[in-house]
């Protein structure tokens, strides 16, 4: 028994002695590590006192040096050098430094500030897997932030300010679920912000200022704890960021935000500091901001905010700083902001306010500038003759549903219109206007594919129109220019100063809708530009100056003068029928238009319910689709949809999976059928019958074919190309969408048909024998060979 006991004692002793020596060893290794750090940092003065007998765990913490131990292990290391400390000499190695640091595996807090550290941050730093706070402010790190940093799952604070990190923020930040502070100010980071930022549920501070980030700010509204959003001095925009209503500080200064302040801002009850100066914001300034319950700082300087201020506007008594300078505000400074009422700073130079000082512009300046974005006081409603031609509807102030643009009606469009594309906008205000936001939209590569750019060649740039300009173009919306009307809209024909004709659609709004409600829609409109579409040319907003709402939206489209495709093929009283070659050229144009609707914009527009009467011909007989299926703004305003719209995730692939793209193929087949048969087809039954006849005519003799096919073709078309066309037509009309060809297949076959036709005879005679002018034929050829 005694023997046994002594055995146990021995064992305990052994264990004790092992653990003691272990701790000693451990501590001495920590000491060595710190001394090595001292060496690697080139013995800075504030570490001079360190030596092999320093008791690191029991040092008095001070502002330059703090070491915290827990059970003998170092858990916190703070070394703060002198501000502006120079870069360490060339023999410094960040790799050796980090290799040394990771010998302190219990570190939870690491703060190495202003130490002159340089190099690219080695990813092995992530071996410090207990890290909760990492602060590397004011060093000389360069290269990318290692994406491995997202494996530090305990990280709560990541501060990399004032270095020279480049590249983007990792996409995998979501795994940092504990992150509360993310600050990368004053670096050279660039690229768009990852949506994964929106998943950092615990984030309180997001500070990205003084970098080169660009593009939209991802939706941050699910970050319920976000208090500080600092995006100053990047290239972000144009949409105001969506944040939760615990936000206290929003700094968007010096970016490319333009789309106005959203309604939600009115619910930011904890917002103290709002700095959105030096952006391109347009639209009315919501004066209710001044009376938010916590607001103390408002800076909207250097934008294009419009609207009228009133003397009796309320403000929060705690408001200390207001800078309205360099906007387009009119009216009177609210008396609660007058100097003297409190020790506050109020700046408002460079507006059109009524005030004693001479730092204000004349009211006409603000009016003219405002016109550049279509802001105008009340306008009386004008009488119009009713004559429905267009089905545009507006519900609840929001443009809704399918926009069918420009059915029919179109007179001669001048040649000057074509030249207009190469001329800069003629007036100063217009130029100004178009740079304000739409050009940003167009510049943004995400919105414009190569196809769009190529297809839109020759069209004048999308721009903002001033109301004045539209009034001039329509002789004050004179009834003689009226061409049609829907429930909430009217359509006019106008002639711009450059001589070109346009179609102007005027949508009357119910009140209480700000610019931001319309911008997503406008964005879509601005992308609908292609040689084979009736393209959008621009828009104009009309505001009420006395409240923050839009009264009318004007959409400006091309005006195409030459009648519908049917009117050139199968209408009763027809002046001149298209030859076979011209017909092929026209349908190639239509197919290109469809291809653009499917693939040239994101998300694509499918199921456009196309009819031959929706195809207009311009003066060069180029076909343009004038009716397409535009999803409603209401739909787009749903967050999910908007998201997928902006990210382009609702794409062609999914449409192809459920054969949405094949509905347009069928409709296209019906058009081909009418072009081949020369007979107006208005019922599905008729289509089926003709299709069957055509099908059998391919195998049968020429006699049967001649009876089905338009006689014009029998005179002007080659047999080979006709056969090809009949085959495409019938396969487009397959009852099972799966069996219908893709639009690319269709295009290929059409182009083949056109080539064999060209080869067989250069037929540039119209059917009535009158030669078409050389210019027109060369254009036609061009279209075919594109
Ligand atoms: C770097 O070079 C300096 C002298 O130029 C020397 O004093 C220092 O010890 C070197 N540091 C390292 C880490 O080798
Ligand atoms: C902080 O403490 C370290 C060592 O204890 C010492 O070398 C340093 O000079 C101190 N710094 C200040 C600012 O007191
Ligand atoms: C500490 O350093 C001194 C000289 O730098 C040396 O003489 C001494 O042996 C060292 N002590 C230990 C315990 O390493
Ligand atoms: C990070 O370091 C900087 C510079 O010393 C300091 O201003 C900041 O408060 C630190 N942040 C945290 C969370 O430690
Ligand atoms: C930061 O890095 C970029 C690219 O590497 C370089 O052009 C720039 O000069 C660096 N800036 C500083 C302050 O070191
Ligand atoms: C951060 O960058 C901005 C702009 O480049 C500069 O004005 C500012 O002084 C920098 N801040 C610090 C603390 O270096
Ligand atoms: C207010 O805004 C104007 C215009 O941007 C600017 O020049 C001025 O410095 C600003 N004043 C303050 C105190 O920020």
TrEMBL record:
<keyword id="KW-1133">Transmembrane helix</keyword>
<keyword id="KW-0325">Glycoprotein</keyword>
<keyword id="KW-0418">Kinase</keyword>
<dbReference type="GO" id="GO:0005524">
    <property type="term" value="F:ATP binding"/>
</dbReference>
<dbReference type="Pfam" id="PF07714">
    <property type="entry name" value="PK_Tyr_Ser-Thr"/>
</dbReference>
<dbReference type="InterPro" id="IPR001611">
    <property type="entry name" value="Leu-rich_rpt"/>
</dbReference>
<dbReference type="GO" id="GO:0016020">
    <property type="term" value="C:membrane"/>
</dbReference>
<dbReference type="InterPro" id="IPR055414">
    <property type="entry name" value="LRR_R13L4/SHOC2-like"/>
</dbReference>
<dbReference type="InterPro" id="IPR011009">
    <property type="entry name" value="Kinase-like_dom_sf"/>
</dbReference>
<dbReference type="InterPro" id="IPR001245">
    <property type="entry name" value="Ser-Thr/Tyr_kinase_cat_dom"/>
</dbReference>
<feature type="signal peptide">
    <location>
        <begin position="1"/>
        <end position="25"/>
    </location>
</feature>
<keyword id="KW-0472">Membrane</keyword>
<dbReference type="GO" id="GO:0004674">
    <property type="term" value="F:protein serine/threonine kinase activity"/>
</dbReference>
<keyword id="KW-0732">Signal</keyword>
<feature type="transmembrane region" description="Helical">
    <location>
        <begin position="388"/>
        <end position="412"/>
    </location>
</feature>
<keyword id="KW-0677">Repeat</keyword>
<protein>
    <submittedName>
        <fullName>Probable inactive leucine-rich repeat receptor kinase At3g03770</fullName>
    </submittedName>
</protein>
<keyword id="KW-0433">Leucine-rich repeat</keyword>
<dbReference type="InterPro" id="IPR051824">
    <property type="entry name" value="LRR_Rcpt-Like_S/T_Kinase"/>
</dbReference>
<dbReference type="Pfam" id="PF23598">
    <property type="entry name" value="LRR_14"/>
</dbReference>
<keyword id="KW-0812">Transmembrane</keyword>
<dbReference type="InterPro" id="IPR000719">
    <property type="entry name" value="Prot_kinase_dom"/>
</dbReference>
<keyword id="KW-0808">Transferase</keyword>
<keyword id="KW-0675">Receptor</keyword>
<feature type="region of interest" description="Disordered">
    <location>
        <begin position="761"/>
        <end position="786"/>
    </location>
</feature>
<dbReference type="InterPro" id="IPR032675">
    <property type="entry name" value="LRR_dom_sf"/>
</dbReference>
<feature type="domain" description="Protein kinase">
    <location>
        <begin position="477"/>
        <end position="752"/>
    </location>
</feature>
